[in-house]
Amino acid sequence: MEENKSYREKIAGAFHGMGNNVKDKFKEFNSLSRDDKRKKIVDTLLNNAMFIMIILAVIVIAIMKPRFLSTASVINIISLTAARLPIALGIAGAIVLTGTDISAGRAVGLTACITAAFLQSAGYSSKIFPGLDPLPIPVVILAVVLVGAAIGFVNGFFVAKFKLHPFIVTLSTQLIIYGLILLFLQIGSNGGQTLSGLDGKYLDFIAGPLFKVGGIAIPKYVLYSVILTAVMWVIWNKTTFGKNMFAVGSNEEAANVSGVNVFLTVIGVFVLAGIMYAITGFIEGARIGSAASYTGLNYESDAIAACVIGGVSFVGGTGKIGGIVIGVLLLQIIFVGLNFLSVDQNLLYIIKGLIILLACAIDMRKYLARK
Amino acid sequence: MKKIICLLLVIASLLFCLTSCGGKGEGEISVFYYTYSDTYISTVRSSIDKMLKTAGLDYNNYDANSNQTTQTEQIDTAIAKGSRLLIVNIVDTGSDDAAKTVIGKARAADIPVIFFNRSVSEEVVSSYDKCVFVGTDYEMAGHMQGELIGNYILKNYANYDLNGDGKISYVMFKGEQGNAEAEARTKFGALDANKILTDAGKAGLVFYDSKNTGKYLVDQGGNWSAQAANDYMKTILSAHSEKGGNMVELVIANNDEMALGAISALQEVGYNKSGGKTIPVFGIDATEGAVSKIKDGSMAGTIKQDALGMADVIVKVAQNMLSAKSHFDTIDKDNVVGNWRVNIPYAPYTQDAADNNEK
């Protein structure tokens, strides 16, 4: 009886507390002077400006083009988001370290070409490895993951060891990887051509239907993207490595002093990013049905933009996996939406640029205000 | 308060832009271009735009920016949007798979497809009854260019043989690796010119760099760009000159853009200007820039790709497809090949042709 009572009290207290919390906030808000009140509202609006804009955009687009919210269109947006998510998840780590990675797109290209080369159907006429039957899928995944990790290691090593800015390191590796792609495509009877004639099993493994909604298939790579997101969430939030990454990102000196191995953390972040690019490349080959020298070109720019929109700041040390997912999704909603509205393609580039600029400016505003 | 006004203005302008740019949307004709930065394709694009507008058809253009992935995704979006006809200038001509994918998507949505300009094989086009290819006989431009060059040089051989060694040394600029059109132009541009020269008892053309066994310099970016040809030409001119007796005596380019790039490099060192010596430069496409260079004598000749003619055929076929007429209704029968493609004829274009046009 006693226990029961105390339990009830606790619950009541908790509810009371919750009510108080909202009330307190309201009271706090009311107690502010007129100017402060206005400032608070403006801040809240500005801090969520991207979301507000996107919600408005979706509403406007959906009113003008109801098909925008049809099953086919929504699945199209989800698939596009899923395809771009892994690379953004990888690049986000580099941004958390106040760096960047512009070799990401080419890394995707190289791994896509390698994947395609090992998984061309047996009888296809122009092949990198003539006479080679398609290898088992897990072997190919392992191979490209190793290649991706190697690229990441090189990036991370030069950043960590020589304190070079990641921009310049990855600019160099970007060129090197492109050269490797071109050389690779010349091997065998291929002669620089697009790699196609991919094995049916591989195509099905990536682009086959996961399940159908209203007769429209959701491709399997959406599931892989979800899994990768979950894995990255665990790494970022539940491991020492993840915590070290944020520590190094917000203050390298302090992290070093408090016993974090900065060298290994930086390399680890880039290796992890490389693995993500490799998986993107692995998915990319089958998603498009072929791989060529241009595959992956400029993928990093969309990924970086998505990260910034999702709140991964170039100031370093901040960012959430959920934010990245939202960033990628929002960017896709905008692009698909603009296509739905038949916006002139020339203007699309301008709008894209403005959105990124605006997002960055709003993001930096938070830090300027704090100082 | 200023900030919030600022933000509201941005939102408002964005929304205004969104709403003002939005056309009638439903059931648009979707036109996909491999890149907006190709001059010739831009000429076709502005003609198609005009014709579709005049015909009162709702359309939307997409720029793939030389990336098949982008284009494939744009096609997905257009179909999700409810497009009723796809007009596709495919990016990837290196294999059939990209075009097959497009046809697969169109078939699933039951809408017709017109491929144009960048070649798609008969096998792929014929696999879908609502599919047509509008292009040019991709080997013909190369053949015509070779013939034009051969006759041009032959008329005044001694004049062009700057070092008097009885041979014409040339450079060939290739637009893109693995593109069937670029391959054919590179091959026949030199081969056919050679044939005419050797038939007339002269020595054939000699590539300026004997170590280059491929006998061409290719735009590494695959963009058929003036910039790539200009870079190459500058490098060549830094090592080859009349003084050294190893000057390049002829420039052949896969398209006019590259020809113009080479001309500006030549002009920097004093060639191809009025009053000076002129190295004959040949292109293909007859773009505005090339035509004006041919008129002022700094370019020797080009092969006219009829942009207007191509746009006209595309729009006619599109209208036929939408009104369920036979695909090739009102199209010149001479240009129709089988029941799958229309060829837009080429024509050589030199100063003589320019003069005739003036008259």
If you had to describe this structure to a student in words, what would you say it looks like?
The complex is a heterodimer of chains A (371) and B (359). Chain A is mainly alpha-helical. Chain A has a single domain, classed as ABC transporter involved in vitamin B12 uptake, BtuC (Orthogonal Bundle). Helices cover 74% and strands 2% of the residues of chain A. Chain A is built from 15 helices and two strands. In chain A, strands 1-2 form a two-stranded antiparallel ribbon. In chain A, strand 1 and strand 2 form a beta hairpin. In chain A, helix 4 crosses helix 13, helix 4 crosses helix 14 and helix 13 crosses helix 15. The N and C termini of chain A lie far apart (55 Å). The model of chain A has no long low-confidence stretch (mean pLDDT 87). Chain B is α/β, with parallel strands linked by helices and 359 residues long. Chain B has two domains: 148 residues, Response regulator (Rossmann fold, 3-Layer(aba) Sandwich); 175 residues, 3-Layer(aba) Sandwich (Rossmann fold). Chain B contains 13 helices and 14 strands. In chain B, the strands form three sheets. A seven-stranded mixed sheet of chain B has the order 2-1-3-4-5-13-12, with helices on both faces. In chain B, strands 6, 7, 8, 9 and 10 form a five-stranded parallel sheet that branches. In chain B, strand 4, helix 5 and strand 5 form a beta-alpha-beta unit. Chains A and B meet through helix 2, helix 3, helix 4, helix 14 and helix 15 of A and helix 1, strand 2, helix 3 and helix 4 of B.
Question: Secondary structure elements and their pairing?
Answer:
The complex is a heterodimer of chains A (371) and B (359).
Chain A: H1 2-31, H2 34-47, H3 49-64, H4 71-96, H5 104-118, H6 137-162, H7 166-186, H8 200-207, E1 209-213, E2 216-219, H9 221-238, H10 240-250, H11 252-257, H12 262-288, H13 299-309, H14 321-340, H15 345-370
Chain B: H1 2-21, E1 29-33, H2 39-54, E2 59-63, H3 68-81, E3 85-88, H4 97-109, E4 113-116, H5 122-126, E5 131-135, H6 140-155, H7 157-160, E6 169-174, H8 180-199, E7 206-207, E8 217-218, H9 226-239, E9 250-253, H10 256-268, E10 281-282, H11 288-295, E11 301-305, H12 307-322, E12 336-337, E13 341-343, E14 346-350, H13 351-358
